[in-house]
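Bench notes, afternoon.
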Amino acid sequence: MQNDPMKTEKISLHGKNYTLYIQYQHHEKLRFEFNRLTREFWDFDFENYYQSGFWDESCILYSLFDGDRIVAHTTVSLLAGNTGGEEKNLVQIGTVMTDEKYQKRGLSRFLMERIQKDFEGKNGGMFLFANETVLDFYPRFGFAPVKEYEAFLRIENGIFSKNLKIRKLDLDCQHDLDLFEKLVENSFPNTAFPAKSKSLTFFYCYANPEIGYKDLIYFIEELNCAVVAEAEGSALRIIEIFSPEKVSIHEIIPAFSEMLFSEVIPGFSPNQENFEYREWKDEDLQLFVSPELQHLFGQQPLKIPTLSHT
């Protein structure tokens, strides 16, 4: 296989031999085994993502195999970030899982330490989400829990002086898919915490309609922007904005005037005024960040963008 990024190493842990496979998604047998374990843990798999063609080299699999069987796994997602005014990749750690028969053998610890070593000095910070069963695990690696804050804007329908034309994109149509891809690739950051990933955007917005936002993507021609948005109760959730130039959320809101809503909630931390903030948590998940990011989350109300959350 030409330009195969896969790396393979023989590993011995506590007297037991394993094979470490890294970035092996192009190898069908290994990928299918990864999908099997993912379905057992999360009730979905990554096959549609792979077949979509949008799984690029920013999504890196780290897996330990015992023979032909995957027994422990962690995924690294690289995101284009900007911390302290400096553009650097951010590293997100996700899809952490260990086969039940192989738990408490130090396999997840090995993968965490290996990932930290591989990306040491090559990123602007790391972050991950952990459920309540492993809250004491990640501090051992220098991660600290931080709070997230959801921005919201109180609003009344009927106050819009200008209604913009809006069109829902059909990503099964090649023209709309190309348009959306171009806007994603050239999008201007509208958030105080940029964490951009074209690969993850298409995971949520194209490859997995049943768990994502494929049917919730709109194009506003006058503003030359695509908006991922949905009505939820009395709220309009603007999950993400993709535009080559800075676009104010206040400009976008009138395009959704036919919906009934009393507040607007971005899926990111807007770098715009007039928003209020409230503490927010994604169900039972706690955000942990590395030391490089702790001061940022301590200084201002931030949240990880919805489309950058694995």
